[in-house]
Amino acid sequence: MSTRVAVIGATGRMGRLITRLIGESDDFEVVASLDSRSDLSQMRGADLAVDVSHPAASGDIVEFAIQAGLRVLVGTSGWSQERIARLRPLVEGREDSAVIIVPNFSVGSALGTALSEIAARYFDSIEIIEAHHAHKVDSPSGTAVRTAERISAARAELGPVDAPHNDQRARGQLVASIPVHSLRLGGVLASQQVTFGGTGETLSIRHDTLSDDSYERGILLALRALPTATGVTVGLDALLDLGGAR
Ligand SMILES: NC(=O)c1ccc[n+]([C@@H]2O[C@H](COP(=O)([O-])OP(=O)(O)OC[C@H]3O[C@@H](n4cnc5c(N)ncnc54)[C@H](OP(=O)(O)O)[C@@H]3O)[C@@H](O)[C@H]2O)c1
User: Fold this and answer.
1) Whose CA is nearest to atom 43 of ligand 1?
2) Taking the domains of the chain in order of start, what are their residue ranges?
3) Most Cβ neighbours (<10 Å): which of 34, 115, 173, 205?
4) pTM confidence score
5) Where does the Dihydrodipicolinate reductase N-terminal domain lie (predicted)?
6) Which residues have CB under 8 Å from 219's CB, separation 6+?
């Protein structure tokens, strides 16, 4: 029997991709397709909800789905640590619901962040440059924010990175003490480079998204993890077997 999925944001770029992937799978079926004009109650009766809508709407959508007893996969951006902290008590202890938040469905991007976390303790100068298409409304990107937070956490015992002259706007926005530089360009889909400066050497960990196809593996991985998930899980890396990589 297939798992019944409601897609919220179904008319959008990600919603159409997810609808196609589910249509091609043997284990899932789309039973409700919602857009900005839909009544959220249309998701009732599904087993899972996938939210790929808009940052301003995502909070209410996820809360509705939890109250309706659905398990939820969130791909929408804008889920800060504070928002996630407010979500946890709504889900924890409930057997009928769980939330997986995946700010970036690309496996390569998740590995880039994990590798940056490893390098974090060996360099004191660390900066992030991210580039996205010109229509992206938020900056820095959620992936850059999460990468900076993870690098900072890995360096907790070492303290903040060296980021001189960061009062100057051109030095980027500090996220968890790390300067992040956001480019919004025609011709680009998504790209992120973390550069580590050491003594007489630099290390760059760069990931480029070349097409939306890069999200397919991560979307299916997260969908298949959802039926047995509990509480709130954040990041594709939590679903990948990174073994001794950390
Ligand atoms: N996790 C990842 O890997 C990943 C990758 C790419 C993008 N994203 C994020 O995913 C989200 C969607 O991106 P996209 O490129 O697919 O956007 P999009 O093409 O603009 O589509 C947005 C979708 O959300 C719907 N929507 C807007 N407001 C809504 C509301 N209040 N209630 C319900 N549905 C609403 C839209 O419906 P209408 O057609 O009625 O307007 C449309 O179906 C964004 O937050 C984006 O940053 C995540």
Assistant:
1) 9
2) 3-101+213-239, 107-210
3) 34
4) 0.89
5) 4-105
6) 17, 18, 21, 75, 105
Distance 8 CA to ligand 1 centre (A): 8
Q: How far is residue 77's CA from residue 165's CA, in Å, rounded to a whole number?
A: 30
Q: What interhelical angle do 142-154 and 107-119 show, nearest 10? A: 30
Low-confidence ranges of the chain (pLDDT < 70): 243-246
Ligand 1 center to residue 180 CA distance, Å? 24
pLDDT in tens, 223-232: 999 999 999 9
- What pLDDT is recorded for position 1? 80
User: For residue 53, how far is its CA from the centre of ligand 1 (angstroms)?
Assistant: 3
Closest protein CA for atom 47 of ligand 1: 77
Nearest protein Cα to ligand 1, atom 41: 36
Active site residues: 132, 136
Fold category of 107-210 in CATH: Dihydrodipicolinate Reductase; domain 2 (3.30.360)
Is-same-fold flag (3-101+213-239; 107-210)?
no
